[in-house]
Amino acid sequence: MATDTACPVDLEDGLARAGDDREFYKELLEIFLDDVPGRMEQLRSAIAAGQADEVASVAHSIKGAAANLSALAIRDTALNIETQARNENLSDAPALAGTLEVEIGRLTEFLRSFE
Amino acid sequence: MRILIAEDDTVSRRMLGRALASMGHEVLAAADGLEAWRILGEEHPRLVIADWEMPNIDGLELVRRIRSSREDESAPYVYVILLTSRTQKSDVVRGIDAGADDYITKPFDRDELMVRIRAGERVLALEEKLAAQNRMLETMAMVDGLTNIPNRRAFDDAFRTLCGHCQRFQHPYSVLMIDIDRFKNYNDTLGHKAGDETLQAVAQIIDESIRTSDSAFRYGGEEFVCLLPETSGEGAMLVAERLREMTEAAAIAHPANPPAGVVTISVGVADFNPRTPRSGEEVLRAADAALYEAKESGRNRVVLSHAPAPVRE
Questions:
Q1: Among A70, B120, B164, B270, which has the highest number of CB atoms less than 10 A from its own CB?
Q2: The complex's ipTM?
């Protein structure tokens, strides 16, 4: 994928959203990464159960939080899942959820090196 | 300003909270609509930023509740900003129609948030000014312009409340009906300006001599009335007698009022006894009759209304 080596966040934009406070931005990333495993679990089980409404709602919340952090890849993938789910389409959802996991992993990596 | 954030997403909630705190606001936070509704009732924030999509009660429903609960016009207005990722015009229209004042799209921009909050503050400041003016008008309508004590209208309100309360809960109260002796002659001899000053002086004496739980009103002309909650006729007589003494002791010259030669008052006292209940109107009439008796029997005195005979089975 073309974005593999790119930074998982638009750092300039993300910092601006956090009032140019690196410590605070880091804290927000931590909150997000603490929260997101639970949401991924909800997403996975909603996909497995074929509950499109629930998939859309969980993807929506992941998208919202990611947008606040300018975590663009996560935001876009979650939006993709949400949009398809709103159209009752869950065929790509398992694969997209996998992509989401990878992107979340990259964000975790990023946070480790972020000072 | 005290601002409530109703937002289920932790990241967004923290960001909003930090941004608002850095603008100097006091921030309350709720993770869903139900919690927001509870905090609204307890902490009375002036401004609410509510996420559209929340568990339990969503932002739209929260706005509806806030608007429909404000039956009391004197309650402060709550300014509501909806936070939404919905950018469709129809959604925005729905939100504003439900009673929201403004909306911000997610992810929010700090500068935009700042100006939206400032716009809200302007509206709230205007609303507050209007409310203060209304309160002032309300007060003015209830206070007698000359004597600065509550007027007849205020009495009617207070008396209705007191009667209702005492009849329902079987509590006693008393009424003092007060009249300045030979006031017409006072005006005729010393002029209306002196008459006004005497009305002010007597009103002040009465207002300062009653107990803190009692209240005094200008009933009309040279007549005053006092309401004494939780007071029997006997207790009311003590208060009435004190008013009479204080007025005489003020020694305001009144040549046309022999034998004292100073301003005096006559007082009719009637009470409501829960064991022999009667209407407020009857109590007032009894106090009036007692006042008449005080006048007839020589003025500058206090008369207790004859209690009605107890009802026999």
A1: B270
A2: 0.83
Residue B118 and residue B231 in one domain: no
Residues B158, B135: one domain? no
User: Chain B closest CA to A48's CA: distance in Å?
Assistant: 22
Which residues contact residue B5 at a Cβ distance below 8 angstroms, ignoring those fewer than 6 apart?
B13, B16, B17, B20, B27, B28, B29, B30, B48, B49
What is the set of domains in chain A, with CATH numbers? 14-113 (1.20.120.160)
Distance CA B193, CA B219 (A): 20
Quick check: B106 and A67 CB within 8 A? yes
What is the rounded distance in angstroms from the CA atom of residue B173 to the CA atom of residue A34? 65
Centre a 10 Å sphere on the Cβ of residue B4 and count the other Cβ atoms it contains.
Answer: 25
Q: Where are the alpha helices (DSSP H) in chain B?
A: 10-22, 33-43, 59-68, 89-97, 110-142, 152-169, 183-190, 192-209, 233-249, 280-296
How distant is the alpha carbon of residue A63 from its chain centre?
6
| Closest-approach residue (CA) in chain A for B83 | A64
Provide the 3-class DSSP secondary structure of residue B102.
Answer: strand
Beta carbons of A64 and B19 less than 8 Å apart:
no
CA distance A46 to chain B (A): 17
Q: How many domains does chain B have?
A: 2
Is A24 an 8 Å CB contact of chain B? yes
Clarify whether B222 is annotated catalytic. yes
Structure confidence by residue, pLDDT tens digits, B83-124: 887 666 788 888 899 999 999 988 888 899 999 999 999 999
Q: Is residue B88 part of a domain?
A: yes
Q: Using the beta-carbon criterion (under 8 Å), do B11 and A31 form an inter-chain contact? A: yes
Residues B101, B242 share a domain:
no
Range of the domain at B71: 2-141
User: pLDDT by residue (tens digit) across B139-162?
Assistant: 889 999 999 999 999 999 999 999
